[in-house]
Amino acid sequence: MAQKRLMQELRSLQKEKWVEITTDETNLLKWRIGLWVVNPDSVWHGAFLKAEMRFPSDYPYQPPVFKFLTPNIIHPNVYSDGNLCISILHKPGEDEQSGELASERWNVLHGVESVLRSVLLLMDDPEINSAANVDASVMYRDDRAQYNALAKATVAATKKSIPAGVRMPSMDELTPVPVKPIDDDADFWNMTDEEEDFGGSDSDENMDDFEEEEEEDEEEDEDDK
């Protein structure tokens, strides 16, 4: 079940330009990931963040584990060892201790893509009230300039370890190609004069016969009077 689901997700994600995925041919439950931060408004813009995802044998009923391999990421929700604290990767069901609702946590409808997009969103909008790195949380709240400087230093460092042949996609490359609407009957408005008849001639002839019969009936009624 897990491997079949992961193969389907892998094929879909390999079409995306904002993520690079490498898998172990002998172990599909372990993925190496490269995430591009393509949001131009992000302090992490331009970063190529390396990470690892490990999937349980009962995936998708249980969530995967996400860990950054890029070192020295200073972020409120990233532990010093690179492990990420994010609600979507917490086990299914409500948690009274943390106050997280079931809708915020993992469920079978989630997948790798939803996790990766959530990670990118969290990088720009950290949860400072449930911090994995308290110092980074305080810095983000009280000294944003220093926080941003450290983030940009990490961005610069990641650019030195981008794999050969890999580049960040442009925004144009990430924009969906608009689908041209299909004209179901393109020839409808190009009909010839002959076709504009719509078969009305036969009906007109029948109507003439009907009107003649009405006139004859009216004459007979007058004679009877």
Overview of this protein structure:
The chain has helices at 2-13, 112-124, 134-142, 144-158, 171-174, 200-224; strands at residues 19-24, 27-36, 48-54, 65-68. It has 225 residues and is an alpha+beta fold. Residues 195-199 have low confidence and may be disordered. The chain has a four-stranded antiparallel sheet, covered by helices on one side. The longest helix is centred in the last third of the chain and has 25 residues, at 200-224. Helix content is 35%, strand content 12%. The chain folds into two domains: 2-174, Ubiquitin Conjugating Enzyme; 188-224. Keywords: Ubl conjugation pathway. Residues 173-225 are annotated as: Disordered. This is UBC core domain-containing protein.
